[in-house]
């Protein structure tokens, strides 16, 4: 069995469609954050609704549906706050309902293995950032009974074989932050994990930002982040 694992699509349809074009799969797990930062949330949500076996909620999905005001601050927070408003206006009621009904965590049995899905960590499912340190993750996952734990949120690919289970973060499809602008994702085939990348049309993603109404400094910022693999002109955090 071949399982495609995706996270942090962030309304980047050119990136998601590039992944879909190169990977066939039997099952697909989506680890949240379908929206914000990018300019084409609708096609991303529609693809996930049609193709994903299981999808969970990310912090940006939650913030968009609940129309949580952005506190501003870092470049990433300012960009997410503006695209939150623009994405919301683009979505149909059925697409918003889909986001609103996503579970915060989920467990699924596939290929005789148990998969636990959470966007960030079990202690704080949508917001906690945790580095790739086995000791910390062993503590966080002490009460999780699974063969694989699949997470997103950091936008950084990670695979850690831990004491009792395997931990996987496929990285971000739509907004990588490790300096590599290619879309990041993972495949689990017959229990073996592979972290993968694919180049996509970044100019088309930038055009989508422009077409959805992003302009000025934030358009320049969003463009630079995509082109530089998550490295904005001025350093910032918060995802």
Can you tell me about this structure?
There is one protein chain. The chain is 34% helix and 20% strand. The chain has 239 residues and is an alpha/beta fold. A 5-stranded mixed sheet has the order 3-2-1-9-10. Strands 4-5-6-8-7 form a 5-stranded mixed sheet, with no helix packed on it. Strand 7 (158-161) and strand 8 (166-169) form a beta hairpin. It is globular and about 50 Å long. 43% of the residues are buried. The mean pLDDT is 95.
The major beta sheet can be summarized as: 5 strands, mixed
Q: Could you spell the SSE succession in H and E letters? A: EHEHEHHHEEHEEEEEHH
Q: Tell me, rounded to a whole number, the average pLDDT.
A: 95
Alpha carbon gyration radius: 16 Å
Residue share in β-strands: 15-25%
How is the secondary structure organized here?
Elements: E1 2-6, H1 13-22, E2 27-30, H2 41-51, E3 54-55, H3 59-66, H4 75-90, H5 93-100, E4 105-110, E5 113-118, H6 134-140, E6 148-150, E7 158-161, E8 166-169, E9 183-189, E10 192-198, H7 202-211, H8 216-227
Parallel strand pairs: 1-2, 2-3, 5-6, 6-8
Antiparallel strand pairs: 1-9, 4-5, 7-8, 9-10
Helix pairs in contact: 3-4, 3-5, 7-8
Q: Which terms would index this structure?
A:
239 residues, alpha/beta, five-stranded mixed β-sheet, 8 helices, 34% helix, globular
Brief synopsis:
The chain is an alpha/beta fold and 239 residues long. It is built from eight helices and ten strands.
């Amino acid at each position: 069995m071949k399982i495609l694992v995706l996270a942090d699509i962030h309304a980047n349809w050119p990136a998601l469609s590039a992944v879909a074009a190169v990977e066939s799969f039997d099952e697909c797990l989506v680890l949240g954050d379908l929206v914000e930062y990018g300019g084409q949330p609708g096609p991303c949500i529609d693809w996930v609704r049609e193709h994903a076996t299981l999808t969970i909620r990310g912090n940006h999905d939650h913030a968009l549906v609940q129309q949580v005001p952005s506190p501003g601050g870092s470049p990433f927070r300012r960009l997410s706050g503006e695209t939150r408003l623009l994405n919301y206006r683009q979505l149909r009621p059925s697409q918003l309902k889909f986001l609103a009904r996503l579970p915060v965590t989920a467990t699924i049995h596939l290929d005789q293995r148990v998969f636990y899905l959470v966007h960030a960590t079990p202690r704080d499912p949508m917001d906690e950032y945790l580095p790739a340190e086995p000791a910390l993750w062993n503590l966080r996952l002490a009460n999780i009974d699974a063969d694989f734990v699949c997470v997103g949120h950091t936008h950084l690919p990670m695979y850690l074989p831990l004491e009792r289970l395997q931990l996987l973060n496929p990285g971000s499809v739509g907004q990588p932050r490790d300096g590599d602008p290619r879309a990041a994702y993972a495949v689990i085939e017959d229990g073996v994990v592979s972290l993968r990348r694919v180049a996509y049309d970044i100019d088309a993603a930038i055009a989508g930002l422009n077409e959805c109404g992003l302009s000025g400094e934030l358009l320049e910022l969003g463009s630079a982040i995509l082109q530089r693999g998550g490295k904005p002109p001025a350093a910032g955090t918060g995802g």
